[in-house]
């Protein structure tokens, strides 16, 4: 079995030197990044957020749009509440480098 990762149907073709775009909100609630849902701002970070939500879904066997996540409770907050500080222990410290190095 070979896994393939693709865009989530909201991919945008950007011009050279562009790193983000604004658009109308499309996508599945629970998987879309907050800045995309609130502002329509699309960037690489949106894909990283969606991929992270997919990984959390795989690890927890819980869908981010499950009926248990109503109001302020989301899959992300549920995991953070269940395992405080766990994320800090599993993140590669190289990923925490200053953002400007990648622009």
UniProtKB/TrEMBL annotation:
Gene3D superfamilies registered for this protein in UniProt: Transferase(Phosphotransferase) domain 1
Domain Protein kinase: 1-103
InterPro entries: Kinase-like_dom_sf (IPR011009), Prot_kinase_dom (IPR000719), Ser/Thr_kinase-like (IPR052451)
Protein name, entry field: LRR receptor-like serine/threonine-protein kinase
Species: Forsythia ovata
């Amino acid at each position: 079995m070979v896994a393939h990762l693709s865009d989530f149907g909201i991919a945008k073709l950007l011009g050279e030197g562009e790193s983000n775009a604004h658009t109308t909100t499309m996508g599945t609630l629970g998987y879309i990044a907050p800045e995309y849902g609130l502002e329509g701002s699309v960037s690489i970070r949106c894909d990283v957020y969606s991929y992270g939500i997919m990984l959390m879904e795989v690890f927890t066997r819980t869908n981010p749009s499950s009926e248990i996540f109503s109001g302020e409770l989301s899959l992300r907050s549920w995991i953070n509440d269940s395992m405080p500080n766990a994320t800090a222990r599993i993140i590669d410290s190289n990923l925490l480098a200053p953002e400007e190095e990648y622009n």
